[in-house]
Amino acid sequence: MSGLARRLGLSLLGPVLAVLVALVISAVVIALIGEDPIEAFRVMVDLGDSPSQQVQSIVVVLNRAVPLFLAGLAVAVAFRMGLFNIGVEGQYRMATILAAAAGAAVALPGPLHVLLVVVVAMVVGAVWAGIVGVLKVTRGVSEVISSIMLNFIALGLASFLLTGPLRGSPPGASIVTTSEIPESGRVPSLNGLLTALGLAAPRSGLYGFLVVAVVVGVVVAVLLQRTRFGFDLRATGLSPSAATASGVDARGMVVKTMLISGGIAGLIGLPDLLGSQYDYGTEFTAGLGFLGIAVALLGRSTPVGIALAALLFAFLDRAALPLQFADIPSSVVTIIQGTIVLAVVIANEIARRLALRSAERAGASAGPGRDAGGDDGAPPPPGPDGGQRVRTGAPGTPEDVQA
Amino acid sequence: MKASAQAMALLLAGSMALAACASDEPTGTGTGSGGGGGAATEDLRIGLAYDEGGRGDQSFNDSAYAGASAAADALGADLQELSPNEDASNRAELLTQLAEQGFNPVIAVGFAYDDVIAEVAPQFPDTTFAQVDGSNADGAKGDNVTGLVFAEEEGSFLAGVAAALKSESGHIGFVGGVESPLIEKFEAGYVAGAQAVNPQIRIDRQYISPAGDFSGFSDPARGQIVAQGMYDAGADIIFHAAGGSGTGVFQAALASGNRAIGVDSDQYLTVEPELQPVVMTSMLKRVDNAVEQFINDYAEGNVQGAQDVLSDLSTEGIGLATSGGFIDDIQDDVQQYSQQITDGTITVPTTVE
Question: What share of chain A is helix, strand, coil (3-state, %, to 5)?
Answer without folding.
Answer: 70, 0, 30
